[in-house]
Automatic annotation (TrEMBL):
Domain of life: Bacteria
Protein name from the UniProt record: Dihydropteroate synthase
Native species: Caulobacter hibisci
GO molecular function annotation: dihydropteroate synthase activity
Its job: Catalyzes the condensation of para-aminobenzoate (pABA) with 6-hydroxymethyl-7,8-dihydropterin diphosphate (DHPt-PP) to form 7,8-dihydropteroate (H2Pte), the immediate precursor of folate derivatives.
Family of the protein in this entry: Belongs to the DHPS family.
EC number(s) per entry: 2.5.1.15
Necessary cofactors: Mg(2+)
């Protein structure tokens, strides 16, 4: 089956402690400049995050998270119609981000962080990305166990989609995301990646986010530093393209768009 080229979601972490680029874009001017560069490099979605989700990250208050992300979203929206997703677990942050111009709520907690999250998502009327995470960011990598990781992640995501729709979120606004690296061992991540066609077959747009993640270093020990994982990051997301994911969430947009252009040329030649 020939799939469309996935959209490229560029990551803008307005945080001091994100695992792969923490602090580089904490300054508002640096964050806006980075956002502009990612657009120039071909990103058609920008994922704005004000709180790191890595294990052991310091929690951020709602007010602080809003202070980090809302001005940047407003500044981007003032000069570009690029799609903007807000990477947050807090309904209050999602609300402020949508008011500032965001189009998508990217929730790594799949609307579980607060009891009213599904209702807020419905009220906002924005697209919602539901991601699987086992446990909490602080403890999720402490020996995660599954009987059948693919079946359990699939069941979780479908259940969260049903909860969102029961609260009033429109089906066509729901995305699913397997949550690579969120409470998974290397084996769990690889099983989920191999089963991506099964997740895509559920009929929701799928977001794949594996950029610079630790499991790449488990395969290539030379890549202990997150910045040394570009090759693995490109490989995973090209696999996602082969599987028909809707979008890939990456830090290295320029390299990803080039890789996808070559992938598209090869696929098109084989038609
Ligand atoms: N939907 C979705 N959102 C995500 N948000 C953050 C991270 C972690 O990456 P990063 O933002 O670079 O790190 P940090 O959370 O430390 O800021 N991964 C995902 C992901 O895989 N899917």
């Amino acid at each position: 089956m020939i799939h469309a080229v996935p959209r490229v979601m560029g990551v803008v972490n307005v945080t001091p402690d994100s695992f792969s680029d923490g602090g580089r874009f904490f300054d508002p001017a640096a964050a806006l400049s980075h956002a502009r560069r990612l657009i120039d490099d071909g990103a058609t979605i920008l994922d704005i995050g004000g709180e790191s989700t890595r294990p052991g990250a310091d929690p951020v208050s709602e007010a602080e998270e809003i202070a980090r992300v809302a001005p940047l979203i407003r500044a981007i929206r003032a000069e570009s119609d690029v799609a903007i997703s807000i990477d947050t677990m807090k309904p209050g942050v999602a609300r402020a981000a949508v008011a500032a111009g965001a189009d998508i709520w990217n929730d790594v907690a799949a609307l579980r962080f607060a009891p009213d999250a599904p209702e807020v998502a419905a009220e906002l009327g924005c697209e919602v990305i539901l991601m699987h995470m086992r446990g909490e960011p602080g403890t999720m990598q402490d020996e995660p166990r599954y009987d059948d990781v693919v079946a359990e992640v699939e069941a979780f995501l479908l259940a969260r989609a049903l909860t969102a729709m029961a609260a009033g979120v429109e089906r066509e606004k729901i995305w699913l995301d397997p949550g690579i690296g969120f409470g998974k061992t290397l084996e769990h991540n690889l099983a989920l990646l191999a089963a991506l066609p099964r997740l895509v077959a559920l009929g929701y747009p799928v977001l794949l986010g594996a950029s610079r993640k630790r499991f790449i270093a488990a395969i290539d020990p030379r890549a202990q530093d997150a910045r040394d994982r570009l090759g693995g990051s490109l490989a995973v997301h090209l696999h996602g393209a082969d599987c028909g994911v809707e979008a890939v969430r990456v830090h290295d947009v320029r390299e990803m768009t080039q890789a996808l252009a070559v992938w598209k040329a090869i696929v098109a030649s084989g038609r």
